[in-house]
């Protein structure tokens, strides 16, 4: 049997819960499959398979222009699901057609709201304000996703008060920034009903915000669990001085060639808000540092999904360059092809890859 088919027996395709959430296909045959799991934002997937009209219709994307409810791809071993958002058909040099399907994990639902708020909040209250007023406000209102989307209780982010101000800001971008600053993640899980003689269907989704957790795992080729490892450090876009509005300068003591300035839009009031605006800006202009490790899937030393997972704090080491740090697993890419399953783990800064 093709190893891809065997390894992807956890893959299922469902209709939208508003269309019954029913199972449409189990273990569909694919040629290559990329499942990119991310900690503080929505992951993504891409699959390639031979073309047929039946497959083309199975992988129906969400289309807001025509209010089309697309299909959902679910991976049981991760208990994660993604919205199908794009497809294309290409012709190879030998004249064969290939179907390529792409989409994002369910936290991409956060991308569908624009938020506006200002005030002083704890992190818990800030997330509650964003979610309640933009995703659950007014049962039955046009902006409410309830009861299709429900929110699980928040972890304790602490009692520190921070000022926040968003003026017609994308909700997903705002939430991602908040989570990254607090070493937290987001996941949206499909909830199934039925079973015991009844068809299993997706009834709704639960959104959960969660904190990074310590792990015993070590990623190091000398430990025998790393096949390849890449280190990336980029300071080209890093800044250390923020000019806020007309008069406020954050880190004004830095001088000369060491001074790297960036401007930020002016908040409406208060010195505390100026300082928080500056800190948020610096967070978006920090040094990028990530260690990418291709894990030996046959290694049993630290078991994936048991000893470590997305959001785990692991020890990443590359002794050749003298790098050793406890970092959060920010991305796990599972890639399946005719050779089987491959896993790439990225720790540290999240880096967008195309």
Task: Characterise this structure.
The chain is mainly β and 354 residues long. Among the domains are: 110-185, no CATH class; 213-235 and 288-348, Roll (Phage tail proteins - horseshoe like beta roll fold); 241-284, no CATH class. 14% of the residues lie in helices and 45% in strands. It has helices spanning 3-7, 53-58, 123-134, 171-181, 271-284; strands at 11-14, 23-26, 32-38, 44-50, 72-75, 80-91, 97-105, 114-121, 149-151, 162-170, 184-195, 198-211, 213-219, 226-234, 241-244, 248-250, 261-264, 288-295, 312-318, 323-337, 340-348. Strands 1, 2, 3, 4, 5, 6, 7, 13, 14, 18, 19, 20 and 21 form a 13-stranded mixed beta sheet that branches. Strands 9-12-11 form a 3-stranded mixed beta sheet. Strand 19 and strand 20 (323-337) form a beta hairpin. The longest helix has 14 residues, at 271-284. It is globular. The mean pLDDT is 90.
Q: Determine the number of helices (DSSP H or I, runs of at least 4 residues).
A: 5
Beta strands, count: 21
Fraction of residues in helices? Answer: 10-25%
The percent range for strand residues is: 35-45%
CATH second-level architecture of the domain at 213-235 and 288-348: Roll
Largest β-sheet summary: 13 strands, mixed
Question: Can you tell me the CATH class of the domain at 213-235 and 288-348?
Answer: Mainly Beta
Could you give me the name of the CATH homologous superfamily of the domain at 213-235 and 288-348? Answer: Baseplate protein-like domain - beta roll fold
